[in-house]
Amino acid sequence: MRLLIMGPPGAGKGTQAVNISKTLNIPHISTGDIFRENMKNETALGLEAKAFYDKGMYVPDEVTNRIVEDRLTWDDAKNGFLLDGYPRTIEQVNFLDQILAQKSQKIEKVLELTIDVPVVVARLLKRAQEQGRIDDTKEVITKRLEVYASSTAPLLTEYKNRSILIKVDGMGSVSEVEGKIKTALSV
Ligand code: B4P
Which of 47, 57, 75, 135 has the highest local Cβ count within 10 Å? Predict the structure, then answer.
């Protein structure tokens, strides 16, 4: 299955994607994880991404698109994948459509995790205490939510119009949300 998981920062995309990808036996591809790994190792990509990431801004499309294009050529993604945190802009949607069309493929389902803003802010501030992620300060969280609302939330309409959008309530415990996703995907 070729699947996307979308939702605001802190909705639990990464948390849920780990389990869904295991259940479906497809790779979990998170652009956020790829950036963090590169920042940790201080690669050229990591240094480029950091300037945007730590302000709560999106990394430029040409950088992010290149990474995804390369990652989707790996053997493990031949029969499906779960993309987490990508696409986030209309340019990324169009780019993804193009690279999949070249292989006569398309996205089959898009999971949207819905959640209230105060809940995501609380989750991200808790993660800040536990993990010290540089983009989990109150100021940067506010910026990330604004960027999500203006650049990413409108993409959901595009997938709704394609009749592939599945909304799942992201409130509740990790296992409760996992149960709701499995029901929604019938897996
Ligand atoms: P991401 O890594 O995608 O980060 P996120 O939106 O914060 O995470 P997510 O929704 O996955 O939340 P999580 O499960 O971790 O992006 C970070 C940055 O990378 C972006 O701001 C941008 O700069 C850059 N970037 C990434 N992709 C890009 C793209 N395509 N284009 C441009 N730039 C891009 O959950 C959050 C917390 O909540 C965790 O601590 C978790 O333990 C907790 N949690 C999860 N589910 C819970 C539950 N049910 N109950 C209680 N707590 C829960």
Answer: 135
